[in-house]
Amino acid sequence: MAVLELVGQKWMLRILWELRDAPLTFRALRARCDNVSPTVLNQRLAALREAGLVELGDDGYEPTELCRGLGDILLQLTDWSRRWEKERPAPADED
Amino acid sequence: MAVLELVGQKWMLRILWELRDAPLTFRALRARCDNVSPTVLNQRLAALREAGLVELGDDGYEPTELCRGLGDILLQLTDWSRRWEKERPAPADED
DNA sequence: ACCATTTGCTACGCTTTATGTAGCACTCAT
DNA sequence: ATGAGTGCTACATAAAGCGTAGCAAATGGT
Questions:
Q1: What digits encode the pLDDT tens for the residues B25-57?
Q2: What is the pTM of this model?
Q3: Cβ of residue A95 closer than 8 Å to a chain B Cβ
């Protein structure tokens, strides 16, 4: 299950999520991702580009056709997330 | 998108994936996850339990009802993964 | 040509997180 | 009591991430 290793890395899901509907420049994407350090962002984008999931176009980074299916799944994930946040036990205060 | 932070942590997707159809003991789960260090596994399981997604039953750790929907999404993710592995550009050799 | 702005991206020192091994406390069967 | 299984923790080391600063190239304005 190679995708779990790729997409299970920190920031990966977030990055793909932020690119879901419009291209973003490196800096804009960084801003969307809570100003993740450019070092990590670059590493992730490099991995995503090598995997053929993201490409750098004229308007910034955008998901490739290959990535569309993943986008749908991410949408379902966030749908599920909303339901989960309503039903989950503890309101997520840390200790 | 709180779920992205929870589930985007290292090993999280893998853990949920390994628990997809049968309960696993702490040690068995650890073995399935490439012998991830017990420190991290315990941290992740604690987070998943606090989130109400996983519980410790008589036969080991298992996803809760709340988690079922997520399981379906994970299945789709692995479906997508199989397609992706056929069509992706580089055969994933590291450098 | 010159300057300011924006682009993608890298370098560096520091903190956080993960790893790997060992082992504790507990339960249960023998 | 012994041995094997359980969940989980401690500790030192290695890896990953963070935050800030800044570089080189491209763009637009004067």
A1: 999 999 999 999 999 999 999 999 999 999 999
A2: 0.89
A3: no
Q: Which nucleotide is nearest to B49 (CA to C1')?
A: D7
Q: What is the pLDDT of residue B95?
A: 36
**Once rounded to an integer, what is the mean pLDDT over residues A27-51?**
97
Cross-chain residue pair A52–B88, CB shorter than 8 Å: yes
CB A24 within 8 A of CB A16: no
Confirm if A14 and B4 have CB atoms less than 8 A apart: yes
If you ran DSSP here, which 8-state letter would residue B54 be given?
A: E
CB atoms within 10 A of CB B80: 18
| Candidate from A12, A73, A78 with C-beta closest to B76 | A73
Nucleotides on chain D that have an atom closer than 7 A to a protein CB are 5-12, 16-22
